[in-house]
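haha ok so turns out i had the wrong file open the whole time. this is the CORRECT one, sorry everyone. sequence first:
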Amino acid sequence: MAAWRCSGRTNADLVANMHTARIITTDKVDQAMTKVDRINYVMHKSEAYEDSPQPIGHGATISAPHMHAHAIEHLLDYLGPGKRVLDVGSGSGYLCAVLHHLVPDGVVVGIDHIPELVDWSKGNLRQDGLGSALDKGEIVLVTCDGRQGYSDLAQYDAIHVGAAAPTIPQQLVDQLKSPGRMFIPVGTFAQQIMQVDKDENGKVTRKNLMGVMYVPLTDAERQQRGY
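then structure:
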């Protein structure tokens, strides 16, 4: 089953179809994505369960569900109780919610450079029943330039980047724990998802995972005017 055929009528349908397609391969990811209803994180509710990227305003999108699933599966070995995760370009807050369920007693930091999106994402999380996680600092959402990471709560066991950088930002590599892993789209016209691993000795290795097409990781002004 191809990724774009994973759309469903409900959130449960969507997740089940991704499991059938072997995009989701672990029960942990299945359970976490089942707990977070995508309808709370999209602009157009009738399209909530379509397996496609969707605009959320301000030149931003929420990634297709299958890309979120791929990302979480690749980061899963670095998620777990007490872990710290950074989501760069957190947008609607959807992935922060899913990651929260995978790091009990840990911290998920979501950063976006559009303040209106950060405010909207906080409302989305509260609507999804995660207000207490925000209040306790288990989910932290801040407005800043994602290319610089968020040093206040570094270092991170896992970093997810939801927009394509021309090259891997060194600040993000520096904020990765040893060991740690980053999932990041890299490139301009031809883009690749890269898995960046830092071992316990601080050695960094990079691996191409797949070709993709993401919106660019840029500054707020360029994004607002359409790059």
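Helices lie at 11-20, 27-35, 65-75, 94-102, 115-127, 131-135, 170-174, 220-224.
again sry for the mixup
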